[in-house]
Amino acid sequence: MLYAYAVTDDPGPEGGAPLPRSGILPELGVERIRESGVAVIASPVPAGLLDAEAIAERINDPEWARERVLAHQAVVTALLGTAAVLPLKFGTLFSGTAALRATIETRRTALAEALDQVRGAREWGVQLFVRQPPQAAPHAAAGRAGPGAGAAFFQRKREARAAEQAAAAALDRLAADSHARLARRARAAVMNRPQPAAVHRRPGEMVLNGAYLVAEQDEAAWREDLAALEREAPETGADYALTGPWAPYNFTGGALGAGAGGGVGSG
């Protein structure tokens, strides 16, 4: 069985840059498997040690999952800067070398195109937080309720609902405009689902969770686009947070189409 970390350019017979000594588990080595112009970085795994059932059984153990995810990321990170890298999802497994080679062959064109896209570029993340405007206090009814009190109550509710919808639309426009301006100089860009407050733990609401694949020669200009948005932030109540650079997880083109145990093939 093979646990796969990433797809890279084929370094040729010379073998390329040295690989990390340990993989998803400390006792597992890391090797390159070359096929059809690409190389897959993988660890041979004894049957039953880290198969799909073992991962499914232990993934709910936070400490185990954290250590394994960090180990997976460490291998991917070690590859960055040495070749174009398509990181694979945590838990990408193949039943053996034959199954892996067959999968590479069926996805040869897509893998080549994805590697071309990420070559010489890095992924950056931008999150946009907006502080919530203070909620208007409900109007107190003056004096006793008169014949028109019911109509006035429902009118206030309609006005409050319209104000909420207008505020939500304004946030959507701010997020869309920010994303469009940041995507302008990127090779590719995606808007991921905003994180809830329990995850991001920052003041305000996250309205943009964007990922941007930026060519290294364009990073200075792209960072200036972000700086321009930040200069406008006091007017919009926005707070931009830059993260990265990261391995291009958002731009793998599906890579080998495997993850979380779903990539186990036959062969």
TrEMBL record:
It is found in: Gas vesicle. InterPro entries: GvpL/GvpF. Its main location: other. Keywords: Gas vesicle. The keyword Protein biosynthesis does not apply. GO terms for cellular component: gas vesicle. GO terms for biological process: gas vesicle organization. Belongs to the gas vesicle GvpF/GvpL family. This is Gas vesicle protein GvpFL.
